[in-house]
Amino acid sequence: MPQSQIAAQLYTVRDFTKTPEDIKKTLKKVREIGYEAVQLSALGPMDTQELASACKDLGLAVAATHTGFDQIRDNMDEVVKEHETLGCSYVAIGGLPQEYRHADGWMAFAKEATGVAQRLQERGLTFAYHNHSFELERFGERTGLDILYGESGPEFTAEIDTYWIQHGGGDPAAWISRVCGRSFLVHFKDMTMKGNQQIMAEVGEGNLNWPSILNACKDAGVIWYIVEQDTCQRDPFESLAISLKNLRGMGLH
Fold first, then answer.
1. Mean pLDDT by 10 residues, the chain (253 residues)
2. CB–CB of 88/64 below 8 Å?
3. Rounded to 10 degrees, what is the CA torsion of 53, 56, 62, 65?
4. Distance CA 249, CA 253 (A)
């Protein structure tokens, strides 16, 4: 593991990761910005060994991936082999699969995904769930996210996204604390306003309470602090650089 716990989510620069050559150039730019780790997501087709070698040559660790739930469940041998090649222990999914997005689906997914996560754990990998804001819709007395973490086993870990929790009316620090002990990955993005519209911002450039969030992460045992910005108001590489600079200024290394 590198000295830094900060990683760049490559989804931020997905427009520059279509081909193997593009991916290599993007990895180089991310490393030059100062990141020592990446999360792999939204990449075009590339041989896994070639990708692993490109990261290794640049001194980039692979903190985690985003992998489709169907792929994890139905092709676990392949997923395990790919992650072993990448030297990566964390397999996250990007959100609740569409077929579970109904009142009864939350409980069903929590149970099914726990079984998948247990199988992954037996193979040396950790399953994580990345939230958006729709998970904070209420179903009776509980939100979808309450159901997911309340009805799943400890093998079902969290990848709390700070922006999306705030977007859904939640408290990012409180949610990180709620999944203490099963929160090893966190997505960092900030929220600001443009007129009356909520928009994404570089970490430290918006209105989220970063001292509270960072304290919650420390107490919860977060291992990887992953910078992601789905939509940037400037060049996305510049956005990644601003977030990294600001996080270092907050004392995170």
1. 85 98 98 98 98 98 98 98 98 97 96 98 98 97 98 98 98 98 97 98 98 97 98 98 98 89
2. yes
3. -10
4. 9
List the Cα angle 3/175/247 in 5-degree steps: 35
Residue extents of the structural domains in the chain:
6-249
| CA within 13 Å, CB half, 85 | 14
CB 72 within 8 A of CB 64: no
Sequential DSSP letters for 90-119: EEEESS--GGG-STTHHHHHHHHHHHHHHH
Q: Are 227 and 203 in contact, with CB atoms under 8 Å apart? A: yes
Q: What residues does 160 pair with on adjacent strands?
A: 186
Q: What angle do CA 56, 77, 159 make, to 5 degrees?
A: 65
Domain at 6-249, CATH class: alpha beta
Task: Give the predicted TM-score (pTM) of the model.
Answer: 0.97
- pLDDT of the residue at 22: 98
Phi first, then psi: give them for residue 113, nearest 5 degrees.
Answer: -65, -30
The CA distances from residue 66 to 69, 116, 153, 209, 242, in Å, are: 9, 15, 20, 26, 23
What pLDDT, on the 0 to 100 scale, is given for residue 1?
54
Residues 63/88, Cβ–Cβ less than 8 Å: yes
Closest CA to 207 of 158, 253, 162: 162
DSSP state, 168? T
Among 15, 121, 2, 120, residue whose Cα is nearest residue 62: 2
- Measured CA to CA, the distance from residue 200 to residue 74 in angstroms comes to 34
Residue matched to tokens 């209105």: 207
